[in-house]
Amino acid sequence: MDMLIFLPLLFVGFAMSSNDDEPDDQSLNGTEGNDLLQGGAGDDILFGYAGSTLTGGTGADVFWSGYDAGETAASTVTDFTPGEDSIEIVVYAAEVIPGYDIQPMGTTDTAIVVDGVTRLILAGITPAQIDPAAISIFHSP
């Protein structure tokens, strides 16, 4: 069973949906604040706002992160699987889509940095393990 857990206990709202053909595939959306999103089995889509912790579980998961100028808190992905999972970064309120960098964070983690701001931290993954083709950045209409 897939679970959606929020921390802290007070939150603005959330959305969760599943695909009728593949009930283990989930789409989980966090809210502003420090949410904990857990996908479980299946090919999940997890959208975390600043400060969220995202765990996809098994399957080919997609980790989304929003970028808006002025936001500084990064979300953490706990179980990114190189060659299987992917990252989507949505840019809001920007005239031009900024570039991104893949940088080491300590000795065991990787930071995905957009326009000079760390947006995602990939726990237990080094930059050498990341295929840039697994990362997409685009503007929200």
List key phrases describing it.
seven-stranded mixed beta sheet, globular, 141 residues, mainly beta, six-stranded mixed beta sheet, disordered N terminus, Alkaline Protease, subunit P, domain 1
Q: How are the strands of the biggest sheet laid out side by side?
A: 1-4-6-8-12-11-10
Taken together, the total number of domains comes to 1
| Principal-axis shape | globular
Question: CATH superfamily membership, which one?
Answer: Serralysin-like metalloprotease, C-terminal
Query: Over all CA atoms, what is the radius of gyration?
Result: 14 Å
Number of strands: 13
Distance between the termini: 34 Å
Topology:
Layout: E1 4-6, E2 15-18, E3 26-29, E4 35-38, E5 45-48, E6 53-55, E7 62-67, E8 75-77, E9 86-91, E10 100-105, E11 109-114, E12 117-122, E13 135-139
Parallel strand pairs: 3-5, 4-6, 5-7, 6-8, 7-9, 8-12, 9-13
Antiparallel strand pairs: 1-4, 2-3, 10-11, 11-12
Quick structural overview:
The chain is mainly β. The chain is built from no helices and 13 strands.
Detailed description of the structure:
The chain has a single domain, classed as 2 Solenoid (Alkaline Protease, subunit P, domain 1), CATH 2.150.10. Helices cover 0% and strands 43% of the residues. It is built from no helices and 13 strands. It has strands at 4-6, 15-18, 26-29, 35-38, 45-48, 53-55, 62-67, 75-77, 86-91, 100-105, 109-114, 117-122, 135-139. A seven-stranded mixed sheet has the order 1-4-6-8-12-11-10, with no helix packed on it.
